[in-house]
Amino acid sequence: MNAESGSFGQANYSAAKAGIIGFTKTAALELARYNVTVNAICPGYVATEMYEAIPAKTKEAILARIPLGRAGTPQEVARAVHYLIVDGDYYTGETLNMNGGAYMQ
Predict the structure, then answer these.
(1) Percent of residues in the chain assigned helix, strand, coil, to nearest 5
(2) Domains assigned to the chain
(3) ∠ CA 69-80-68 to the nearest 5 degrees?
(4) pTM of the predicted model as reported, rounded to 2 decimal places
C-alpha cells in the first residue's frame, strides 16, 4: 500500500515499493513480445511473524483501518500467485492490491 499511498516517516520504504511497480510495468512492456507476463502482487498486512511482532495496540489501529477487519493470510497471497500463474494469461503490467480494502484506488 505504501507504494501507492505513501506513509509518514517511510519515504525509503515507499520509494522502494513504488520502484517495484514501475519496474513491473516496464518489464511487462519489454517482455510482452516474448509472451512473458509480469505483474506485481501488493499485499497489505499479512499474518506473518513480522506482523505478529507488532504491538497489540498498534495492531488494533491497523485493523480498524481495514474494512474486512483482519490481516490477510500467506495462503491468500499464495492463491493470488497461483491464479496469475495458472489462469492469468492476459494479465500483464498489473498491480494486484490485496489488503482487505484498506487502500482502495
Answers:
(1) 50, 10, 40
(2) 2-98 (3.40.50.720)
(3) 10
(4) 0.84
Calpha distance 86→14 (Å, rounded): 30
- Measuring CA to CA, which residue among 83, 105, 78 is closest to residue 3? 105
Spatial neighbors of 77 by CB under 8 A, at least 6 apart, are 41, 43, 46, 98
Q: What is the pLDDT of residues 26-58, one digit of tens each?
A: 999 999 999 999 999 999 999 999 999 999 999
Nearest-angstrom CA–CA distance, 84 and 95: 11
In Å, the largest CA–CA distance within the chain is: 49
Task: Find the angle CA(74)-CA(76)-CA(78) to the nearest 5 degrees.
Answer: 70
In this predicted structure, the answer to whether residue 8 has a pLDDT above a threshold of 70 is no
The arithmetic mean of pLDDT across residues 54-73, rounded, is: 95
Integer Cα distance of 79 and 67 in angstroms: 21
Burial degree of 60 (CB within 10 A; 0-12, 13-18, 19+): exposed
Instruction: Let me know if 13 is a catalytic residue.
Output: yes
